[in-house]
Amino acid sequence: MTTLSLIGIGTGNPDHVTLAAVRALNDADLILLPRKGEAKSDLVDLRRLLCQTLLREPEQAQIVEFDLPKRGERGDYLGAVDEWHNAIAEVWASLMAHHLPEGGRVGMLIWGDPSLYDSSLRIAERLGAAGGQVEVEVVPGITSLQVLTAEHRIPLNALAEPIQITTGRRLRERGWPSDAATVAVMLDSGGAFTSLPADDTYIWWGAYLGMEKQCLIKGWLSEVSDEIIHRRASLREQHGWIMDIYLLAKQPLI
């Protein structure tokens, strides 16, 4: 039997990694580090740094890096994602079978928390079909949404009001979610908030949260929308990649 630990590691700041995550990392017989291409080499560098910092004996650990399969470009978005997840599950299964043929504990470092807009749990569910018996455990981590509100020093929701977490694509397609006083937007390819009325929408935006190059902007969309668009484009060009998130409300939360 193989146990796969999906370990939430926060947003790149070693101080955000929980004691439970450190324990799970040190208990692993094999640690798998995914690479997402040269443009996002910072991400695997951060995972390497976490291993070097948090492992009791990093030189003794079995750490294996691998390239993630690329998602196909096709009109059927959900179908393309389904095929992509199958391909990743096959890679995971192959690596575990090769490096732990007798079974053991595998650690996978997951940005933020495995439950929030991350597909690791869905991929792990397919490992049975890819071959072998795998038990999955989850170690929760600090999410980018938590770091965003902490850095802006705001609560997540308006007093006694609901919040909805959505994606940039859904915000563009459907506009402001009904019955939500506050909207958190993730996985935005850039500028989905420009589809909203600028005069009555307040935004708290953050990029590279928890990292040294963290950037924060807040204000009414009518005042900061262009600044965010331009800053985001500049940062993406400078670093070759960007991860950002933002919170929207009809008025300042405090």
From TrEMBL:
Which is a GO BP term held by this UniProt record?
Answer: methylation
Q: What is its EC number?
A: 2.1.1.152
Q: Fetch the Pfam families from UniProt.
A: TP_methylase
The terms under GO molecular function for this entry are: precorrin-6A synthase (deacetylating) activity
Q: Which domain of life does the protein's organism represent? A: Bacteria
Give the keywords, sorted.
Answer: Cobalamin biosynthesis, Methyltransferase, S-adenosyl-L-methionine, Transferase
Q: In which pathway does it act?
A: Cofactor biosynthesis; adenosylcobalamin biosynthesis
**S-adenosyl-L-methionine listed as a keyword:** yes
Keyword Transferase on entry: yes
EC supergroup of this enzyme: transferase
Residue intervals of the Tetrapyrrole methylase domain: 3-224
Show the PANTHER family listed in the entry.
COBALT-PRECORRIN-2 C(20)-METHYLTRANSFERASE, PRECORRIN-6A SYNTHASE [DEACETYLATING]
Name it: Precorrin-6A synthase (Deacetylating)
Species annotation: Vreelandella gomseomensis
